[in-house]
Every structure is written in C-alpha cells, then in structure tokens.
Amino acid sequence: MQVDLDAIDRRILLELQRDGRLTNQELSDRVGLSPSPCLRRMRRLEEAGAIDRYVALVDAASVGLQITAFARVALASQDASQLDQFEREVSRWPEVLECYLMTGEVDYQLRVVAKSLSDYESFLREKLARIPGVAKIHSSLAFRPIVYRTELPV
Predict the structure, then answer these.
(1) Distance of alpha carbon 33 from alpha carbon 115, whole angstroms
(2) Residue range 61-141, CATH number
(3) What is the distance, to the nearest Å, from the Cα of residue 50 to the centroid of all Cα atoms in its chain?
(4) What is the pTM of this model?
C-alpha cells in the first residue's frame, strides 16, 4: 500500500536509509524538526509500513561469502500449488538473499551467496534442483558489483 509522503517524510526516509543508527536528535536536526514531531513522524512511517525494518548491511566477502550467483529458474508448470511450494522452499534458505517472480522465459530469479563454487554447486544439487517441478536452472556468477544500492529514491 502506498503511503502519502510530504517533503519532510521523504527527508526522514532518505536520512534513515543513509544511516539507520541516527538518534532522534540527529535525525530531527537533519530534517529541520524538533525531536518530538520528528519521532511522531518516524513512528507513523513505521506503522504505515514505509519503514519496513532496521538492519546492518554486512560485507559478504568479510564473512567469507565470496560467490554471488544469479539463478534463473523455470518450473514445469505454473499452477498455484507449484508456485507456492517453490516460494515456500526458497524462503527457508539463508543463502537466498532475493527471489523474484518474473515474466518472460523463466519463472523466478534468485540472488544467492555462497562461500565457494563447490558450496554453490551443493546448493544447486541438494536444494534448488530437488524442489518438485523445477524444470531448468540457469546460473550466472557475478564478478563484482558495479552498482549496489539499498537507498530508494524517495
């Protein structure tokens, strides 16, 4: 559901996307509000779902995850039960960072991280390929990110 945002709401969202650890005082200074109205607006944005959650972005290589792969998956059938089963399965696996239902020649695209090529192969063989209804998997390995943003243009 889309949330009605004014210029101050957008500024709050922009500042929090840049630094989710800002104190309310720091945030209020940056957006030009006193602390109480700033906190009220922030809580309203949280309750409305515009702010989904607060996280720390961890560098994958620093924790040993050297491989980023994109797996494009085609199912044998697109009936609701197969789609639901596929989505339930991939949602359980921590190495799947993103999964999108797609249009076109494949049904899903996943972004997957792994420690090594052999770990990614194990993921493909022992998890992804074993989901009933998976007909094809096409993988591409990323050399390095060129653009990686978490900040939405609000």
Answers:
(1) 45
(2) 3.30.70.920
(3) 15
(4) 0.89
